[in-house]
Amino acid sequence: MKHSYIPKKQKLVLASCILSCLNFPTFAEDRAVELDELVVVANKQVRPIQEVVGQVSLITAENLEQTQSFDFVDALRYEGNIHMEHAGNRFGATGINIRGMGQNRVAILVDGVPIADQFDIGSYSQANALFPDVAMIQSIEMLNGPASTLYGSDALGGVISIQTWDPFLLSAQGDDDSLYKFKAAYNGSNHGRNLHATGAWQATNSATLLSFTQQDGKGKLNHDSSEAYKDISDWDQQNTQLKWKLNREDGGQFTVAFSAHQKDQSGALQALLGTGRFRNTTTLNYSDQHRQQGFNISHDWLFNNSVEQAMLRIYGNHSEFDQQSHEDRISRGVSTTQNRRFEYQQDTWGFEFNLHQRLETERSSHRLIYGLTYTLNDIEEQRDATQINHNTGQITNNLLGEQFPLRDFPKSKVAEWGLFVHDEIALNDDWTLIPAIRYDHYRMSATNDALFVGEITGIKSSDFSPKLGLLYNISDNSNLYFQYVRGFRAAPFSDVNIALSIPFLNTIAIANPDLKSETSDGYELGFRWFGDDQQLQANYFYTTYQDLIESKAQVGFDPVAQALIFQSINIQEAKIYGAELDYQWQFHPQWQANINLSLTRGENSKTHEHLNSISPAKAVASLQWHDANERWFATLYGVHSRKQSRVNDLDDELFLPPAFTTFDVLLAHHFSPQSQIKLAINNVGNKKYWLWQQVRHFDAQDAVIESLSQPQRNYSLTFQYQW
Prior knowledge:
Elements: H1 8-21, E1 38-39, E2 47-48, E3 56-60, H2 61-66, H3 72-75, E4 82-86, H4 88-91, E5 93-98, E6 106-110, E7 113-114, E8 119-120, E9 126-127, E10 137-144, H5 148-151, E11 158-164, H6 167-171, E12 178-187, E13 192-202, E14 206-218, E15 232-247, E16 253-268, E17 281-302, E18 307-331, E19 334-360, E20 365-389, E21 395-396, E22 398-399, E23 402-403, E24 411-426, E25 431-447, E26 459-475, E27 478-489, H7 493-496, E28 500-502, E29 507-510, E30 518-530, E31 534-558, E32 563-588, E33 591-604, E34 618-626, E35 632-641, E36 660-670, E37 675-682, H8 692-695, H9 704-707, E38 714-722
Parallel strand pairs: 6-11, 29-32
Antiparallel strand pairs: 1-2, 3-10, 4-5, 6-7, 8-9, 10-11, 12-13, 12-38, 13-14, 14-15, 15-16, 16-17, 17-18, 18-19, 19-20, 20-21, 20-24, 22-23, 24-25, 25-26, 26-27, 27-30, 28-29, 30-31, 31-32, 32-33, 33-34, 34-35, 35-36, 36-37, 37-38
């Protein structure tokens, strides 16, 4: 067997990561209660979860395989207070909501690189956040609550940190320092087919990983009672990643990674036909494309003095959407065809530089990290449309009073840089004090052209985001923590400079150059207990928000244009508070039980109206079993959500999902250490239910509600072989 040179310090890091993150090619699939799960997201340094101040959870590659996750929606479906936001059957998942904070308020990082923003304008356009293929994910770390001190403006609601596979760690699972993995799967919830292949191999002191996934499928398999409202969809996507890593003899590392994604989707939105503004529509078809390419170069240095480590990361991403809609209408005997096109493009460039330092004094021990980050985004959007009158043959580019082509916001350039320092001060064996502070500067500039008609303004915004944490070790296996953290989010480009006028719908959206940045003050008190076969984590959080932005709120009426005026505005004050609990119990060598509870409340502090971004209380429970020979595995998941009743709905028109309880059964059999087969029976009771984050913008009488019901009972099958 070949052996690569890995310094002692690096071996310790690798060993820790392997123990906490990997599923070696053995029969064992379940995992006992983990007491040494390691995370980076809370401190930007490797720490056991029990030493972290704040609510942090971890999903490993093993967990993703155990829950038979096909995409990121599946990956998070058993999380208590983390929800995927959706935009219907055409556009699907758009972003992540943590403790009621979503819509680009959660920082989502892939190998330390921020992903593109989400943007939408109307029914025909949606630029979504893009998540990597789950087969390429080594771990997902989730930090609940404000985290601007370490992650800047995007982290007002929390952080999702995704790590793709390390070539050294993956190749170590195979023989002769190489591993090859093949997976074929069928997803019954959307008739999806999945083929995945990965290869990882080591040389003397370097390792390479190459991964490719091909997926295709149909639309979501709605509940059978919604068959008449079923939308039609065909999609096809590919994901690929190439990563090369070098371990230097001095302990440093150098990594180069390239990734690419493309997705094509077409279909027909049948649920909308004959309803509301589509009452005269006979067909509504679409064809969407999404392309993304990116690179990530990082270099880590290790030192033998007080400065222990330095890291430099340079990255770039290009993301583009091209969405086309085709609509046939018959109104008052006139037959028309409307063709619409939405284009959105975002280019991101940036770097991050961190220094880790350890200092010892007579009374305390310090672990410091200093950081400098910079990100530059170039963003542009365009809509175009034509209408053909089949009675007269006339073609026009004026639809509903809008003159196309046009931009809904001007070409925008957003530059953000931040400087932070974070310290962990061990006062003694029992007390640890964690002060930190960050300074952020945000600048948005816009460029005018003939396609944008509206007011243009630039924004400069700066703020400090301090944090103070305190950890007290009650005993060797229990502790208490408290933290205060301030959050900051600069006003987004799309809220500041938006301009939209649809005379036919009597609607005007106007810019708001006076829009203020959002800030928050968050408090959290938590308790952790780690036993030999049990662990308990519980916390209470309370966060106040100042100048929270409500996008495109109705603010008045224009008597000249006879139109409603919409504008993004600041809510003066809001608060979100609640509690979370997680309990795990390995009550038998072959049995493990888990339960997760979350309860969140939110309201406008001035009007005392509920915040509609808050999901109902949720409970997730699981029971895992494996046979004595560790060849057969079974897991039962149960999810219960309370009915949605705490909403701001003055007209009593919103659709409020009822309470629901669903069960999933996951079965697995390992033929050998190399091969396994898995079966999932999802929604065993064939329950008809809805998720609040997918339907919270729809009225109860909207026919599209039926098409947004979650999948009926369905089956998924996965076969995997590795050597």
